[in-house]
Write a structure and sequence with these properties.
single chain, Aldolase_TIM, alpha/beta, cytoplasm, 55% helix, Transaldolase_1, TIM Barrel, transaldolase activity
Length: 333
Amino acid sequence: MPKNLLEALRAVTVVVADTGDIQSIEQFKPQDATTNPSLITAAAQMPEYQDIVDQTLLKAKKEAGAGASPAQVVSLAFDRLAVSFGLKILQIIPGRVSTEVDARLSYDTDATVAKARDLIGQYKAAGVAKERVLIKIAATWEGIKAAEILEKEGIHCNLTLLFGLHQAIACAEAGVTLISPFVGRILDWYKKDTGRDSYPSAEDPGVLSVTTIYNYYKKFGYKTEVMGASFRNIGEIIELAGCDLLTISPGLLTELQNTVAELPRKLDPSKVTALSIEKISIDKATFEKMHGGDRMASDKLAEGIDGFTKALISLENLLAERLAKLESQKVTA
């Protein structure tokens, strides 16, 4: 008897929840969980997570000291909130949580390294081993170089906003633990660029991109894990069954769970040896040349960093408003 697609997928792929919604994580019980600035900002606005936001603000106020300005308190709370959600998530899942470095640091290697060390320090202070945390960093050249430094320190990284083979190869050569190629955002770009309404799942440009990266890694024996991300429909997920990991939104997890069908494995390391694939060596000049020649990757990386930056600014504004409300309630009391 066929299983539901979620159960079948778990037999060949590690399923990760792509959400900051703790209730969804409790429902689907994934191995790992990923968050990003947009997801944390959305979760922070949900009434059920107001306590996490308030506790983080009050703790930041205490840590900042009596003379601290509201801006200083908000800045400190902002740095702490992603970890606050990460700690809650780690109480539920058996595996790892991904916590993102400020997207505004994406082109600054030293600042990214410093921020990653700070995040890991916060987790360590809360009693969480660094093996349970993946630091998410945008896959710019500078971000990849930061990840190379961090990996040598035993801080594991998840390189995100990844759209091109050049980014994937650079990550693998840097010894990065995991990459998150964005399937749906690649599809979005091609639909807009070509004017097409849709693609068959097997011809989906995002699916083809992840398949190419997966085959390249397995062909040349790279240890970096491939985690497909940013899905628009379950057809994309079905075509990537067998990928090392897939991070999936609660809505699509529900659809997979409610669909009973056979799920043939599409990505398989045993089938890669026969493929003829050219090995590419990536230095900064080659990376920049390949990135400049890939309109989709160039557009989507810049757009992704901009989008995450806007989400972070929204989160800062949200925290400032909430702090003002807490202060007002304190005065009234």
